[in-house]
Amino acid sequence: MDIPDRILQRLYTYGSLKNADRGAEFEIKNRLQDAKVTGVSRVVVDRQRVDLEDVRVVAADEHEYTLDEIDEGRPINFPVGRTVVIVVEGIDLRAGEHEIEIDFIADPFGELTLEVTDSIRDEEAVGGIPRDDEDNYSESAIAARHEYIAAETGVELEHVPRNSFDADVTEGNVENFIGVAQMPLGLAGPVQVNGEHADGEYPVPLATTEGTLVASYSRGMKAINLSGGAKTTVVDDNMNRAPVFVFEDARNARDFRDWVFEHMDTIREKAEATSSVAQLVRIEDYVTNNHVHLRFDYTTGDAAGQNMVGKATFAACNWVLSEYPGYVENFYLEGNFATDKKASKINDLQTRGKRVTAETTLSEQTILHHLGAEPEAIHHHAQVATLGSFFSGANTNGAHPANGLASLFIACGQDEANVAESSAAMVNTTLLDDNSLHVSVTIPSLIVATYGGGTGLPTQSECLSMLGCDGPGNVEKFAEIAAAVVLAGELSLASAISASDWVTSHDELGRNR
């Protein structure tokens, strides 16, 4: 198997070189596909060949082997994502850079050679946050970090350590736990949602430090309720990972693209084998210069799915790299074309997460007597604001989609960085013959989850439960509620701006009064 040198070198784990009790050691991590190590034929450290009797291999299951215990009949399992440690007994390396060379055999790759330069750091000079390798969520580990903060900053923590749940429930959600950031949590609404998944009135928890936000969203929700509710529609569901492959020239890039689509069935099989949930819907192809960007599009059930699709795409790409008959100069699992946690035009067009629309028609009386503005004024402001958004290059023509989404995300255990994509909403107003106003909001990249990630944390799970969205089977429902929240915020702020009430409302309810 012809593995590009730049990809091969990634098997070595940089920063792993260190002195241990019996010698020096370093790590090799399988970043390609499931394999078996069948031998090590050469190890060189700083241009000095090592006696192979002094070399040990520690497998992923922590079992240790001498080299004469490894051969084709007695291989070491080397699954993708797992590490083997190479131990060279009897040497002690100075701090600084060292040259490492190793020849080994792995099925199905064949003979592989790694030549890298790694460093041993003076750990005492580096320092770092206190941690416990056995249990980093224990009371003693947390207390050590509190003492570290006091010593380094002079701050004795009073409020941060007051959490109502055991620290170990946060494992997998945060590292080096020290406590909680307590944010005010308000209740907006309720809002009437007339969706295909959400159907009813929902009180909405919003975590924020911005005065007037909850009141403003509640005002918009009341306007929606007076208009019969928000009609919501999930149009598309699509989570992406976009690897990039680099070739000698554009012709080779095109040929590779064609080969990928000829083998689509097998690629789908390899990707979906990594998950019981992920389903590969399609692969988008974008060829530029000598680069091939492939945007793998999946459905991911009730999870947001970024990690899920990363694992699935990685498996598919490893198969592609091993089977493609041509030469791939380089490969990266993400070429920044999925635009993870960044707003982008490609996501507006092709969707990332849920594509959902919320809409309502407000009567003239509702707008005048509840929102305090005239329908014509709101409609005209929407036209002016759209031009301003276009001129400024903003990611939305809305007033503040990120406001409600950020507050809802924090309350309900969503990945808050996904607000960057999710806030790219498109607002449209239509003034009807009876002077009523139809307002709709489409969110093309709403990334939400009701399972996995932070949704299982105690506070966040309770907030999801308030909405009837806790656990599997509820992600479309939550998406529809989120879209209705954005619609409410747009109605309220657009009315305040149109009626020149924006500043006075903040003066009355906000911290700047």
TrEMBL record:
Coiled coil: none
Record-listed E.C. numbers: 1.1.1.34
Domain Hydroxymethylglutaryl-CoA reductase-like: 7-121
UniProt KW keywords: NADP, Oxidoreductase
Gene Ontology MF terms: hydroxymethylglutaryl-CoA reductase (NADPH) activity
Enzyme class: oxidoreductase
PROSITE patterns reported for this sequence: HMG_COA_REDUCTASE_4
Reaction catalysed by this enzyme: (R)-mevalonate + 2 NADP(+) + CoA = (3S)-3-hydroxy-3-methylglutaryl-CoA + 2 NADPH + 2 H(+)
Superkingdom field: Archaea
Alphabetized CDD domains for the sequence: HMG-CoA_reductase_classI (cd00643)
Protein name per its UniProtKB record: hydroxymethylglutaryl-CoA reductase (NADPH)
Organism: Haloglomus irregulare
